[in-house]
Amino acid sequence: MTPANTKRRRDALRGALTATVVQVFTAAVLLWARLQEGVPGFVSLLLLVLAIAGLGAIVPIWINYRIRLKEIEGGEEDAAAEY
């Protein structure tokens, strides 16, 4: 594995981890807001749906991370740089 590929793999992992942390943090804030007093029923339900949707977005993040690793290993970025 070349140093460039190692850096690309590290950057891909860093991006996936950052996106995951942001999604978890956002879901936590939404759930916290949902638990506050005086939140109407509809808003409470909306906050719950948004939190679940945010957590559901974590799966595609890691699927795309795996795809990115395959691209790096396959040398697609290096081949594209030749043009």
Task: Report what the structure shows.
The radius of gyration is 19 Å and the shape is elongated. The protein has one domain. Helix 1 packs antiparallel against helix 3. It starts with a helix and ends with a helix. Helix content is 86%, strand content 0%. The protein is built from four helices and no strands. It is mostly helical and 83 residues long. The model has no long low-confidence stretch (mean pLDDT 92).
Question: Top keywords for this entry?
Answer:
mainly alpha, elongated
Explain briefly what this protein structure is.
With 83 residues, the protein is an all-alpha fold.
What is this structure's SSE topology?
Blueprint: H1 3-34, H2 41-56, H3 58-74, H4 76-81
**Uncertain segments:** none
Please give the share of residues in helix: over 70%
Radius of gyration: 19 Å
DSSP summary: helix tally: 4
Mean pLDDT comes to 92
Order of helices and strands: HHHH
Structural category? mainly alpha
Major pleated sheet:
none
**Proportion of strand residues:** under 5%
Between the first and last Cα atoms, what is the distance in angstroms?
23 Å
Return the domain count.
1
Overall geometry: elongated
Q: How many strand elements? A: 0
